[in-house]
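Session log. Operator J.P. requested a structure for one protein chain; no other inputs attached. Running the standard single-chain path with token output.
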Amino acid sequence: MPTSHPRRHFLGRAAAALAALTTGIPSIADAATIRDFDEDENDGWMKPLKGKHRQFFHTTAATETPMLMASNYLDAYRDAFKAKDGDANAVVGMHGGGLAMGFNDAAWAKYAMGKGGSINDPATKEPAVRNIFATGTPLAIDTLQKRGVVFLMCNTALRMRSRGFAAERGETYDAVYADLSASRLPGVILVPALVVAINRAQEAGFTYVRA
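Structure written below.
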């Protein structure tokens, strides 16, 4: 029988405790959102990833680090281990501060994500009003997607972020949540809770790295 990993149990308990402290009792809208997901849909992102080597990179900060790690991972398997296309799979899961990387330029400008996350645009040296991680560099999200990297966004974190923006802007939670959900970058997949996506990925044979 496989042995349980104490660190995984600790991470699961810590995430559950944090969720309980920060989110409280889900609203009716939250509960409806959770029910919108079903098990087959939740794991759909995983099914095409059939490589012998499968790695999950978990990030809570808006930074190039997870893309750099995913790129290095694919490069090393290709160059040092002679892996063919599809032999190595990489997934980047975003929540917390890392959530901002999954939104388009319009959302960055509308919700002042650069200012809120203390992220400056290297071109202007001012708080970014565009997603500087999305396109245009070897480590951009769209570049990594073309190499087969899958990007996941945590719906629990999205709900929390939506509540915060709604309060700041005097708007309804439902309107902000719908807007942000629709503002995800192409190919960014919304999963019910990243901690569960990590758990299910590990059960399916993925290894885990905190990026």
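Operator note: Confidence is low (pLDDT under 50) at residues 1-39.
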